[in-house]
Each structure stands twice: as C-alpha cells, then as structure tokens.
Design brief:
With 146 residues, this protein is α+β, with helices and mostly antiparallel strands. A hairpin with a 2-residue loop joins strand 1 and strand 2. Zinc ion (ZN) binds next to loops.
C-alpha cells in the first residue's frame, strides 16, 4: 500500500487502511523533515499541531478511496513573515480541496461528453462520491462548460 501512496506523493508515508462497504480509507502522514512556508519561503521543522484532512482519490480495485492525512500545522520561524503558522501543502491537491487533482482530471474526462446528472450517477457507481453540482463546478473551473 505504501507504493500506491508514494505514487501520489513520495513525501507521504502509509500508516494503515481499512475497507468499509466498498470504500477504502487510507491513513497517511507526511515524511518531510522541513516544510516550506507558502507565505515567505522559509523552511520550518517546528510542528504547531496535527489535524485530520480527508479527501478522495482515484479508486483502487473497484473500491472508492478516501485518504485521511495527518496534516501538520507548522510554525514559521521568519520574524519578517506575515504569518506565524501555516498548514503543510502538497502538489497533488489544491489547498482546501476535497479531491486530488488526478481524480478531478478523471471526473472531467468522464463527464465531458454526457450530462452532469448522468456523469455523477456513473461516477458514484465505483469511482467517487460526487453530486451533479460538483461535476458542473469542476467542468466550469476547467472551462469546458456544463
Ligand atoms: Zn513564513
């Protein structure tokens, strides 16, 4: 399972997983020694707190995937920075998004040639829990219409 997680981001370590009703919940944590502050670019290795961030990713063997990330809030040590703390961020997901970028790509690919109602129904079968308005919003965000 760690290999699957490393494909998403080599900065993540697999901790555990469980499968409940066709949904795979995978718990992961960052292995970065230092995290770069997004506001000033200074590295920090001082953790303020850890919180759970849950998001969906591409399915594995027909199981929908939910990743539970032990996301860190870090202190910024730069006295000139506008922020004293910041949350660790990753390239595979937009800040505050609930789905990985590659899952969003898949949703757009599957939705582009059908109605958002048909798309959300097909996606819900075995790819991702999603409503038609989220499908619409994603297509609009990618400028592909709805
Ligand atoms: Zn900073």
């Amino acid at each position: 399972m760690d290999e699957f997680i490393k494909q998403l981001d080599h900065n993540l370590d697999y901790i555990s997983h469980e499968i409940i009703d066709g949904k795979c919940y995978i718990t992961v944590a960052s292995n970065r020694k230092e995290v770069i502050c997004p506001f000033c670019g200074f590295p920090s290795s001082k953790t303020h707190s850890v919180y759970r961030k849950t998001f969906q990713d591409l399915p594995i063997l027909g199981n929908k995937v939910f990743i539970i990330l032990h996301n860190r809030k870090m202190f910024c040590n730069n006295p000139d920075c506008s922020h004293t703390t910041f949350a660790e961020r990753f390239d595979f997901i937009s800040y505050k998004a609930k789905k990985t970028r590659r899952l969003e790509d898949e949703i757009v690919r599957m939705s582009i040639n059908c109605s958002s109602v048909a798309a959300s129904k097909a996606l819900k079968e075995n790819v991702v829990d999603i409503g038609k308005s989220t499908v619409c919003n994603l297509l609009k965000k990618r400028n592909t219409g709805c």
